[in-house]
Amino acid sequence: MTDIPVLTIDGPSGSGKGTLAQRMASHLGWHYLDSGALYRVLAHAALKHQLPLHEAEPLAELAARLDVEFLLEGQHLQVWLEGEDVSLKIRSEQAGNAASKVAALPAVRAALLQRQRNFRQAPGLVTDGRDMGTVVFPDANFKVFLTASAEVRAGRRYKQLKEKGIESNLSDLIAEISERDQRDTGRSVAPLQAANDALVLDSSALGIDAVVKTICDYVR
Ligand code: C5P
After folding, report:
1. Per-residue pLDDT tens for 63-87?
2. 99 close to ligand 1 (CB < 6 Angstrom)
3. 103 lines ligand 1 (CB under 6 A)
4. Which of 130, 185, 188 to mutate to test the pocket of ligand 1 (most atoms within 8 A of CB)?
5. The 142-147 sheet, strands edge to edge
6. Residue whose C-alpha is closest to residue 100's, from 134, 131, 71
7. Which residue in 9, 13, 130, 209 is a FRET match for 194, CA 20 to 30 A apart?
8. Is the pTM of this model over 0.90?
9. Longest dimension (CA), the chain
10. How remote is the C-alpha of 21 from its chain's centroid?
11. How many CA atoms lie within 13 A of 47 on its CB side?
12. 184 lines ligand 1 (CB under 6 A)
């Protein structure tokens, strides 16, 4: 254990936790870990190397030797896999769904645990995901669980994808988000749930600036 401070932000997909985490990291001057990107990159690498998404052992092996690099450029996170910039490719809904399949395998989660903990570097770490406050950093100083209704989250995702030039369909997004929520909440290992000591915030009716302000007040 270490005394380097950590702020964990967990929640379902599209709750705004990624934007909040990046804003908080930049505000505090701390490092940032997007743990979902790790599962997305792993699923992408599995598809690239033609590994089925349900085969725990080869996937865990791949996870252990995954050649991935994160570069935070201002508010933009660049993700490199085996020397290729996959930042855009891993953001599709299909990539998110594939990620939630590999993320349901206990051996895969175990293989990625220490890699995530290694991001805890001075002066501090802001991290977002599903199990940051419950499993990866249970001793975190500040824990947030950010949520919003499935419809609001799908609407936000639609807008985000459009801004990135990715076309999508709103009702498909609602169905995909609900399916992913169910898989993430119902899995046996590290299910999506708020830590007992987390600040739970529903962002359905809140803009990102209001959410950032609430969390700044909490951390202060
Ligand atoms: O947060 P994001 O949508 O990028 O995560 C993609 C998927 O990765 C999630 O649906 C979830 O299944 C998985 N994940 C996880 N644990 C984390 C972060 C993401 O299981 N800490």
Report:
1. 999 999 999 887 788 999 999 999 9
2. yes
3. yes
4. 130
5. 31-34, 125-129, 6-10, 142-147, 199-202
6. 131
7. 209
8. yes
9. 47
10. 10
11. 16
12. yes
CB 192 within 8 A of CB 181: yes
- Positions in the chain short of pLDDT 50: none
Q: Residue 5 is encoded by which pair of tokens?
A: 């401070």
Lookup: tokens for 126: 């802001």
Within 15-67, strands assigned E span: 31-34
Distance 2 CA to ligand 1 centre (A): 25
Topology of domain 6-219, CATH = Rossmann fold (3.40.50)
Q: Ligand 1: which residue has its CA nearest to atom 1?
A: 36
Please tell me if the CB atom of residue 129 comes closer than 6 angstroms to any atom of ligand 1.
Answer: yes
Burial 55-91 (b: 16+ CB within 10 A, else e): eeeebbebbeebebebeeeeeebebebeeeebbebbb
Residue 58: cis peptide before it, omega within 30 degrees of 0? no
- Both tokens of residue 167? 């076309």
pLDDT given at position 91: 87
Distance (Å, rounded) from C-alpha 177 to C-alpha 184?
10
Ligand 1 touching residue 13 (CB < 6 A): yes
